Amino acid sequence: MSIFNYREQPGYFKRLGEALKITKQDLGDQIDRVIGTSRERITEEQLEELESILIGADIGVDTTLEIVDQIRKESARQKALTSFEVRRILRRELLEILQSSSSQPAEPAAGQPWVVLVVGVNGVGKTTTIGKLARLYSKEKRQVLICASDTLRAAAVEQLEIWAQRTGTEIVKQSSGADPAAVLFDALASA
């Protein structure tokens, strides 16, 4: 049995990259299963299954419908698309979406809350990042309010309480197992 050594643990971005690699591989495998890897023509049934996969991958309903509609439009123009062409369109559309949303959001009007939503897979440092953001914004003389809406993992609330104490910021929380949406509602009402 090895002793835990934090110096041997991979950095934040390496851990995030590893976690995303697994997600990417799983999504890629599902897409390969549905549309195949050959130059066969894609059917409407395959497009519907691709739609389900993209929605299940949390790409979003509206975004998924836009992507699949674009594939259908190009298929109508060319009479039919191969799996290779569908992949090309899918890649192009996803890159376009990611590149168009890479700008910094505008700051809200005076008196309006500015929400920073932190999401990610387990173990990538979300809680630590929240603490660092709270410290940064506090140093900028902003009024910071941490919302502990991860009520399914009791340790998450406790860790955020520690960060709130360290940074001198307020925290909105509820008991373990509470409805996360209710915690978010309370935080927005408080803000």
Structural class: mainly alpha
What is the share of helical residues?
Answer: 55-70%
Taking the alpha carbons of the first and last residues, their distance comes to 48 Å
Oligomer: single chain
Question: Can you count the beta strands?
Answer: 2
Estimated radius of gyration: 22 Å
Low-confidence stretches: 1-9
Averaged pLDDT? 81
Strand order in space, largest sheet: 1-2
Q: Shape from CA axes?
A: elongated
Q: What kind of sheet is the major sheet? A: 2 strands, parallel
Q: Number of helical runs?
A: 7
Could you describe the 3D structure shown?
It contains 7 helices and 2 strands; from the N terminus they run αααααβαβα. The N terminus is likely disordered. With 191 residues, it is mainly α. The chain is 59% helix and 3% strand. Strand 1, helix 6 and strand 2 form a beta-alpha-beta unit. The termini are far apart. It has a two-stranded parallel sheet with strand order 1-2.
In short, what is this structure?
This protein is mainly alpha-helical and 191 residues long. It is built from seven helices and two strands. The chain is elongated, with a radius of gyration of 22 Å.
